Amino acid sequence: MKTATYNVRGMHCASCAGIIEKTFRKTAGVQSAEVNYGTETAKISFDELRVDENRLSKAIEPFGYSLVASGPSAEEMWMLADEYHKGTSISLERSTAKGNWSHAEHLGLNQPPLRQGYEGQAKEEKLAELAEMKWKVISAIPLTIISIFVMGWDALAELSYVAPQSSLVSEFFHHLLPLFATYVLFVVGKPYLLGFARFLRYGKANMDTLIGIGTSVAYLYSFILTAFEEPLRAFVNVDQTYYDVTIVVITFIALGKYAEAKSKLRTGEAIEKLLNLQAKTGLVLRDGKEVEVPIADIRHGDTVIVKPGARIPVDGILTDGESFIDEALVTGEPLPVRKKSGDTVVAGMINTTGSFTFRTTKIGSETFLAHIIKMVTEAQGSKAPIQALVDKISSVFVPIVLVLSFVTLGLWLIIGTEYLGFAKALSLGLTSFVGILVMACPCALGLATPTAIIVGVGKGAREGILIKDAATLQKLHTVNTVVVDKTGTLTRGKPELAEIKTLSDNSERDLVGILASLESKSEHPIAHAILEYAKEKGISLLPVDKFETVKGKGLHGVVGGVEYFAGNAKLASDLSLTVDHASVEKETTQGKTPILLMTRKETLGVCMVYDAIKQETTEAVRGLRKLGIHMIMLTGDDKNTAEAIAKEAGIDTVLAEVLPDIKLQKILELQQSGKIVAMAGDGVNDAPALAQADVGIAMATGTDVAIETAGITLLRGDISKLVKAVRLSRLTMRGVKQNLFWSFIYNLVGIPIAAGALYPVFGLLLSPIFAGMAMAFSSVSVVLNSLRFKNVKL
Ligand code: ADP
Ligand code: MG
Fold this sequence. Notes:
By secondary structure, this protein is of the alpha+beta class. The chain binds adenosine-5'-diphosphate and magnesium ion.
């Protein structure tokens, strides 16, 4: 079973997505298919033994679409580059089979492979398509202007506002219109004609079909009148032709499509910007010499030299020198960050003034930047749940409209003839028929959700908010309760040993020695604090036997033949030791965590560990409250300690001394009481709770994004980004709803008017020309509305 995402060529409307999805699902060997009109991609899971890309593409070709192999993924590219370096023969067949990647091209390594993979051919093709569209539209515009002029003059003359054109001029222009209409329909309107033809052949209708039927019926009817003017004169009004309708409608729709395609390219700019962060070359130490090599040549373990102002080419650990690094573009951190020996540096970040070297740890698709790009690409291509409804509507929309247009024409002929006579009823009926078909195009509907999602996800990435998929973004806007973990989320996650109290005849140094020895086996932030302290004071560690952690309580192990326990009051009561709460009360109410060191018989002492609150916490809590979100702190820490920290942060609900397994239970309880819960935690020991929450938000420490259970990852563990994330989701969903409203309203109001609902009372019938304008306007306005959010400050 293989799952891959392909660009799709030839998608012009939302109903295209439905047709392609259905076709794939019916294709043997395909398990699932998800087609997104916003990104023009298809995500297909299929059995490689039964069907291949070629065959998939063939399946949709009759309907005017095809798959564009999206180029090797970043991963595949690096594999190819690897093979190249190992000197083995490269799987040429594979790259040629994919059809779009010449071997020399992607190993012509002066371009970063990563860029080629993503931008690939699809974009170039899109640009070429756009250039052709532009040329066609431009050629049709003068013809349209002349048609509108002729039409306008006729209309005004009928109302006696202007003198009718002299018969010579009138004859001349009226004979030009058929020529214009022929060019516009067969050249500019070719996609719509093809849509009509496919409908006749395969019975599959999309938006192109509607336009195609409408405009070619208008054209054909007019042509028959022109050809058989004399014999038909007795039955119909032969002067009432529809060439102008064909010309103007097609030009407007084409113009709208062009504007839409152009702005749609802009919605994807976020990815392009991320790709541009990738350096093309790096300065590497080879045989003691500095050599500039393409990034594909940089290997694990290579020493990379970074000069002032240079971009960091791959991920690694700084070994020598130090500098301030501008990582704004990667993590959204506004100020340059100081990096010294041992710190992680990441591809895409820019060195400021210092100079340093680092050891390469991650290359190609393993890098942090590559992960971000992959995540953003996938999220932008995913479908929001709200889209399911839209898909359903647009899939039944086209057939319904087709039927409706024919029924309307019939009604005009039957009822209209009685009151108005056949000639007039036929001309009004045809106007309605074409008007409905043009008005009903569900193009704006198909753009409403995806364009807003693409912009929202991209905007998030620029702010250091990584969103896993559209569903998460949609869910987040309904969240009313945020549960936060204390350590590492509200506090810095880097506790320090603040105080030592001995309760026995052991010295402080002895206590720390035993405790540090035990903690050296643990990975809890508390362990780190104690080890740091021991190191600072030069206290040496002793060997530990039979070490074990006690979840949510602490740990125990044997040091020098004695069994010791270290942890919280729960652990003490497990040992039936009484803890004198009063002795630590002052410290706990200051937000310090007591760590008790015990044997089976007595408490030897207490170490107070303090983890300071993050600078941005208070502000973030205030921001969330302003958004109407209730915050709850959930922690395994001591009750007094938790309450002290909560008070400082401004949180009023605290659930303290909660064991890790119970955290999940608490989330469930909140959900059962009707709350929509987001949980923000470090993603390591909170993973089950994060997964249970409606939205799991992981605080990424450093530059690790491999937090799979989280729907949203906040880079740099910055809690204030949580406020931005909520605002972003609300902004995006507001955009989606506005877009849906506007695209529906056009159809809802336009179709009845086009059908003639206002005619009996007001004598008003919507000209197909206005329908064409309205359609063009609605899809462009939807895309522009989505783009507008790009510049809204979060
Ligand atoms: P949280 O992540 O909410 O702080 P944990 O379940 O990680 O909760 O820890 C709960 C409590 O268990 C800590 O506050 C501490 O008292 C005790 N504890 C956990 N690990 C250790 C450890 N390595 N050393 C001492 N105490 C620990
Ligand atoms: Mg924790």
